[in-house]
Design brief:
two-stranded antiparallel ribbon; alpha/beta; globular; homotrimer; 11 helices; about 15% strand; nine-stranded mixed beta sheet; UDP-N-acetylmuramoyl-L-alanine:D-glutamate ligase
Amino acid sequence: MFQGADILRQVRRERPLIHHLTNYVTMNDCAAVTANTGALPVMAEAEEEVEEMVVAAKAAVINTGTLTPSRAHSMRLMGKKAREMGIPVIFDPVGAGSTTYRTQEIKRILTEAAPAVVKGNAAEIGLLAGVKGTVISGVQSVGAAGNSLEAAGRLKDFLGYNAVIAITGPVDVITDGRRTARVFNGHSLLPRVVGSGCMATSIIACFSAVEEDYFAAATAALSFLGLAAERAAEALKGTSFGPAMFKVLLIDALFLLTPEFFAKEAKVEIRG
Amino acid sequence: MFQGADILRQVRRERPLIHHLTNYVTMNDCAAVTANTGALPVMAEAEEEVEEMVVAAKAAVINTGTLTPSRAHSMRLMGKKAREMGIPVIFDPVGAGSTTYRTQEIKRILTEAAPAVVKGNAAEIGLLAGVKGTVISGVQSVGAAGNSLEAAGRLKDFLGYNAVIAITGPVDVITDGRRTARVFNGHSLLPRVVGSGCMATSIIACFSAVEEDYFAAATAALSFLGLAAERAAEALKGTSFGPAMFKVLLIDALFLLTPEFFAKEAKVEIRG
Amino acid sequence: MFQGADILRQVRRERPLIHHLTNYVTMNDCAAVTANTGALPVMAEAEEEVEEMVVAAKAAVINTGTLTPSRAHSMRLMGKKAREMGIPVIFDPVGAGSTTYRTQEIKRILTEAAPAVVKGNAAEIGLLAGVKGTVISGVQSVGAAGNSLEAAGRLKDFLGYNAVIAITGPVDVITDGRRTARVFNGHSLLPRVVGSGCMATSIIACFSAVEEDYFAAATAALSFLGLAAERAAEALKGTSFGPAMFKVLLIDALFLLTPEFFAKEAKVEIRG
C-alpha cells in the first residue's frame, strides 16, 4: 500500500531539519521547496561546522552543482558524519560525467558518504553506472539514456551496499533492488524549470527524514512533486503565463496540497 | 512622534548604496528588497575590495548565513572599516547558537564591527545574551525564547556599547536601552517566507542609511516590512496562491507603498 | 536586414550549452533566462573543471559581480581556453571602476580572454575606456555617462582587437567599429529589476552561440530582451503588481515570444 499521505502528514507535524550542501544556482528554490513541503532548511557549508550541523538534522542533501574543492571537502565530512549517526544522505550527482573532476569527486562522495538515496536523471545515473549510450550536455541530459532500471542495477553493483536509486524522467523509476516503483505523476513543464531536479532531491530528503523506509520515502516524494506540477499546470491553463509563473505555482502547490488529496491523486505502481 | 514616512521619503530621494555581506541562499531576495525599498544594493565579498566598497556605501549589512572563514574575514574587515568611517553596520547573526563555530564567529564580529543595530529572532538574541530556555533548530528558532526585552538588555550588557537591538516576532521589539518600540504590523505568512528575516535586515540598513537615529530607523523599517506583508496578504486573499506568490506580492508591496499610506497604517508603540 | 528571428529560431533548434561564470546574486535568474530563451545553462566554477566544461559549450559568459580571487582565476582559465577553441566569450564587467581590485581584475580578464562581446552600462564602459564624467555607485551607474559611442570607440582602442561593444541604456548602442546599431525596444521597468543587466549578457551569449556575426547576435539579443520587457509591461498594466511580478512576466515572455512576433516588433536601426 502507498503510504505517501502519512509520510507527508508526519513531515508537517515534525518539521524536521534538513541540512543541504547544494549548488548556488538553485539554493533559494531548494530552501523554499523544503519549507513549503513542511520541513526546515539549513545550508551551512563551512568545514568548521557541517558535522555539528548535520547532527542536529534528520536528513541531509548533497548536490554537486557548482562544486569546488572546499565544498567537496565539506560534503565528504558531512556525509561521513551523517552515515556514522544514521542520518540519511540524499545524493544528487549533478553533472556526473560532464568533466573528469566532477565525476571523480562524485564517485568519492558516493564511496565515503554511502548515501541512502541516489537521485539523478537517466544520463547521470547511467554514466555513473557505466552504461553506454548516455550523452550529457553540461548538467542536462540529452538524448538516449539507456534503460533506467538497468542503469540503476549497475549503479547498485558499483556502490556495493543497499542504496535506493531514483531516476527522474517522464516516468520516474525508484528501486531498492528488491522493489521497483514507477511514478506517473508529473508534467512536461517540470523539466523546463531550472532546478526542478534539485527540488526533487530536497523533497526526498524531507520525506526520508521521517520515514526510514527510504524506498517508500523517495517514491512518495517524487509522486508529491509530480502532483504539485500537475496542480501548477492546471492553474496555468488558460492564462498567458509561462515557466516562471509555473515555478511560483509549483512551490505554492507543495504548500497547498493536503495529505487527503495526495492519497487520492498519487499515481504510483510498486512491484516486488 | 513616528517619523517612518519621512525616512522612507528620504531613502527614495537619496537612493543610498547599501553594501551587503549576506548569505548565498537569500542574496537575490535581499538585493530585490533593497532596490524595491528605494536604495541601491551591492554585494562585493572579496577581502581585496570590501573596505573600499563599504566606504562608498551609506550603510552595511552583515548576515552570517552560509558563513565561511574567508567570508567571516571579509565581514570583520568591512565591519571595522565601516565603524571607523561612521557607517552604520546592521548585523543579522543568522544561526547563532546552532554550531560552536558560528557562535564564535558571531561574537568576534560583534566585538570587532560594533554594529549599530543587531537584529535577530528571540532565540538568536537570547542565545547570544546567554538567556536560558532558548532552543534553536538550524537557523530557525523553535519554542520558548525567553523574554525578548530581557534578552535585548543582556545582549546590550555583553556588547558594552550603545547598540540598538531589534527582535522580530509576532510583535517586533526594538530597544536602544532608553526607548522601547513595539511594532504590530505584520502577517503570519511572513515567517513562512524563507529569507524574510534577511529582508528585514536589508530594510533596516536602507532606513539607517538616511536616519542616524538607528532606533527610529529600525522601528520604521520593521513597521514598513510588516505593512508590506499585510498588503501582500490582502492581495492574496480569495486567490488559490500560497507563500511563493506571497513573496512576489511582498516585494512588490515594498515598491508600491507610499509614504502617505505608511504614515497612516504604521502600528507602532514607543515608550521611554 | 535584421536577422534576429532567424537567430532565435536557431537557438531553439540547437539548444546550445552556455557556460557561465557569473555572480551569486543573479545566478538563478541567468539560468532561467538562458533556459527560457531556448539554450542550456551550466555554471561550473572550480578551476579544476572550467576548461573542460567550456570546451563542451557553444558560448561562455564572464560576469564580475561578487568577484573573488579564485573565481577570477577560473574566469581567466576559462576565457583563455574559450579563446583558443574559438568559443565566443561574452563579458559583463559588473562594477568596473567601483574598486581598484575590481577594475584591475576586469582589465586582466579583458586582456587574457579577449572577449568577443563586452557589454556594460555607459558608466562601466566609459570608465574602462577612460572617458571622463562617469560616476559609479557600487555596481549601479548613476548620472552622466558621457557619449556611449565615444566610450565604445575608446574601449575598442584599449582592447586592440576587434570586439563588439554593447552599451545598455534607454536606447542600447552596439558597435563593431564598422557598423553601429541602436535598439529601441525596452521598458523603464527593466532597469528596476536587479540583474536585468546580467540577463542581457546571458541572452547575448545564447545568440552568439549560434551566430558568428557577434554584432548581429548582440543586437538581436538586446532587442529580444527589450521586446520581452515591453510584453511584460503590457501584461502588468491595469494590475496592482510591481517589479517582482514584472520579473516573472519578463522571464515568461522570453519563453513565449515567437520568432514571427520578434521579426515584426524588433525596433533596431543599423548603420554602416
